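[Automated response] Your request has been received and processed.

Submitted sequence:
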Amino acid sequence: MAERVTLKAIAKRAGVSVATVSMALRGCGTISKSRSEEIRKMAESMGYRPNPLLSSLASKKFRTGKTIRGTPIAILNFPMSASGEGSSGSIQEMYIRDLVREARSLGYAPEVFHFPFGRGVRHLERVLHHRMVQGILLHGSVDQHGMMEDFDWSPYPVVQCARFHISPQFHTVRSNVFQSVKLAFEKVHAFGYRRIGLAVARHDIPLEDDQARHGAAVAVATECMPSRRRLPVFLGSINDIPAFKAWVKKNRPDAVIGFSPRFYWFLLDLGFSIPGDMGFASLHLSSKPEEPVSGLLQNNEVIARQSVILLDQLIRERQRGIPELPMHLLIPSTWVDGETLRPQ
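Generated structure:
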């Protein structure tokens, strides 16, 4: 096995201190960009590979008491769609909170920036540069007023977390939408329900996961239900309550798999007893469900944790800018038993 190339060996060849090599490889400190690049190229030519364990231990020594210090990273928080329409404030705040917590646990010093970022894109670039930000976590839709094209992403490793308006060009960690729909159907079917209505719905301005959810619903309905029991999938807006209620009255499912717990309350408004007259399950439960609703947790904390872990990997491997082949890490949902289903 070849001997590991050390910082000391690189420093000796470059004629600089070990500290200078360390800062150059991490892209921080007061070293000029040209000198840092020269040292990085020299390290690569010598076959240098960072030791993740030592880097992790080194980052933790900057965390003392209640003061969080460490490698600076930025969390850019965008609305969920180009129009500025967002997910509910509680969900957005929850993701940001989880991203901050997980970043700190790995020894990073995260700072949150909310769109439209004050004085514009150029100002944001200067702020991130002067604060020596080493990586960026994205939440929400980046395609805001040309942000995707105008911002210089090349200096930074970038990871997109959770939902977005259009498919991003970055590595992404998000919920496994197809698995969620299929798992919900399998659980409801296991209770003995046979005329299962899939009310997967859509956002008023569709998000990328709407397409995946619609495709999954059609596939499940086609492959798992005989034609005599197959009901049309409800693809209307999540806010079109009259359309949903009309769909229920027309098709009379014995159980509904709805986009969110709101659809449970819509069924109660129609006079149905749940689960007496009809079963119900939700595709999106909150982390701590307050309603007695059966359904799926999207595991937002896991999505946030894996987003930070992936960013950490990109930082260590110095993978910056828009990747040629974006990866999508899909996190499965988990089932939660509630009071809205009963054996048939």
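Summary generated for your ticket: Confidence is low (pLDDT under 50) at residues 56-68, 82-88. Residues 125 and 249 are 54 Å apart (CA to CA).
If you did not submit this request, please reply to this message.
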